[in-house]
Write a structure and sequence with these properties.
Blueprint lengths: L1 H23 L2 H6 L1 E14 L15 E10 L4 E15 L8 E19 L9 E19 L9 E2 L5 E16 L4 E12 L7 E2 L10 E12 L2
Antiparallel strand pairs: 1-2, 1-10, 2-3, 3-4, 4-5, 5-7, 6-9, 7-8, 8-10
Length: 227
Amino acid sequence: MRKLLIIIALWYFFIDAPKAQSESISTDKRIGSTGSLIVSFGPEYCFADTKEFPLGQNLRNNWNLSLGFLQKFRNNLGYKIGVNFGNVTGSDGDQSRMYSFTSKLEQISFQGEYTINIGDKSKNSEFNSIYFFLGAGLLGNSTNLKYTPRIDYLYKVNKPDYYNLNAALLAGFGYQYKLNTSISVGAEFNLEYVFSDYIDGFKPPYPDSQFNDVLQGFSLTVSYVVF
């Protein structure tokens, strides 16, 4: 059922929504606003309750793929609707808990964006731009958890095959370079605060766990203007 909903969302975001938007706006509004499809891919890490530093985890097992639709208006403001799929891991290494996890991530998000163009607009030389964004989303995760049970350690764990669904706040910034009127490439950094301490499937007792889990990602982006 979850996969069906994701497919329906993808169809709407990338086929129906851009088409309806393109048909509804007038010619002169197209000059002042653009709609683009965006694909991004890169490493992502989970700052959770493990002892080892997250950025030391294997790059092949910590990644994020994002598909999105971005509309920019003439005042440099815009919005982006996206879906993300990813995987994150963590480990205690040689610590006494022998705790490690692998989590699969799925997310739908909405974010506002502000762009600063660099160059001479009158000469049509605004090839570079930087942007900042804030947003929110729903993040789902399923976790494969491994740990050494201890009677004297008051931890909490997710049930096997349990699927978490939680709200999240997103923030970040990025850079884009315009190759031509239709295609741009760039890079993006993002942070995501999740309203849950179970992205890793494990909640140690206080003071070992004082905060919810945080995701950090860096990705390369490609965008294509559809109108």
